[in-house]
Design goal:
Length: 116
């Protein structure tokens, strides 16, 4: 089950969110061979074509379990101020060749308006 976390971001600003992923026993999740994907939408039913896609990266070494989610100021400036929903998924291919997708984080993002 995914963890729940809400964020606020400023419209027109560069944003980077750093996530530290851990296993149930408290050790860092080894992200070697994994990929990370994250999107935010105005509502859960909003079309994927209207989603804002985060740029994701796994921080080296992957054994630390650290990943970043980023939006540029151009991306956040294009957002309408208000509430959005988001989630973060980690995927990998298991030994049987099956793709495993795990939602690790979800919640709401409040985009605050800008003046400048």
């Amino acid at each position: 089950m995914a963890q729940q976390e809400d964020f606020s971001i400023d419209k027109g600003s560069d944003v980077t969110i750093e996530l530290y992923l851990i296993n149930k026993n408290g050790s860092a999740k080894n992200l070697g061979g994994h990929t990370v994907a994250a999107k935010m939408k105005k509502t859960y039913t909003t079309s994927d074509s209207d989603a804002t896609v985060f740029t994701t990266a796994i921080v080296n070494p992957a054994t630390r379990g650290v990943t970043t989610l980023s939006l540029t100021n151009t991306q956040t400036n294009a957002l309408t101020a208000g509430r959005y929903v988001y989630d973060v998924e980690v995927s990998y291919t298991d030994s049987d060749g099956d793709t495993i997708i795990e939602r690790v984080l979800e919640g709401k993002i409040n985009v605050t308006p800008n003046v400048t």
